[in-house]
Amino acid sequence: MTRYAPKSDLEVLQGTLDLLVLKALGAGPLHGWAISRRIRDLSSDVLSVNQGSLYPALYRLEERGWIVGQDAQSPEGRRIRVYRSTAAGRRQVVREVETWDLYAAAMRRVILAT
Predict the structure, then answer these.
(1) Does 4 score more than 50 pLDDT?
(2) Residue 39 to residue 36: CA distance in whole angstroms
(3) What's the Cα-to-Cα distance from 98 to each of 3, 6, 60, 94, 95, rounded to whole Å?
(4) How much is the mean pLDDT over the chain?
(5) What strand order describes the sheet that includes 79-85?
(6) What is the pLDDT of residue 15?
(7) Cα torsion at 52, 69, 22, 90 (round to 10°)?
(8) How far apart are CA 30 and CA 16, in angstroms?
(9) Which of 7, 58, 74, 98 could form an S-S bond across to 78 if both were Cys, CB 3.0 to 4.6 Å?
(10) Amino acid 16: pLDDT
């Protein structure tokens, strides 16, 4: 298993949200509200991402080249922005999952310690 340098608390929180968004987009392009809904649905209503956290994450992921956004129109005629993951974003998912697995395993060891 590859070892990664520990991240700061903020990096872990942002990385977790980044991973959730990238995984939500793995099924195909979605607009912001649909990304939030997909995360909620996939987590069986345990995780919810508010708009105040989601949109900065989308802008951050777009800056990094992991997603691209395109203006579109909703069926109701409203202007929306639809996001899709890029090849770089799909590679990042693999890295983020490896990091998440490392943290989850460490948490399991601590929680199960007697």
Answers:
(1) no
(2) 5
(3) 9, 13, 21, 6, 5
(4) 88
(5) 30-31, 79-85, 67-73
(6) 67
(7) -160
(8) 19
(9) 74
(10) 87
Q: Which helix (H) or strand (E) holds 83?
A: strand 79-85
| Tokens describing residue 103 | 């943290």
Both tokens assigned to 33? 């509200």
The DSSP result for 2-70, as a single string, is ---PPPPHHHHHHHHHHHHHHHHHTTS-EEHHHHHHHHHHHTTTS----HHHHHHHHHHHHHTTSEEEE
pLDDT at 12 over 80: no
pTM for the model stands at: 0.81
Residues 43-92 pLDDT 10s: 898 888 988 999 999 999 999 999 999 999 988 999 999 999 999 999 99
**Radius of gyration in angstroms for the set of CA atoms belonging to the chain, rounded to a whole number:** 16
Asked if 61 and 84 count as a contact pair (C-beta separation under 8 A), the reply is no
Residues composing the chain: 114
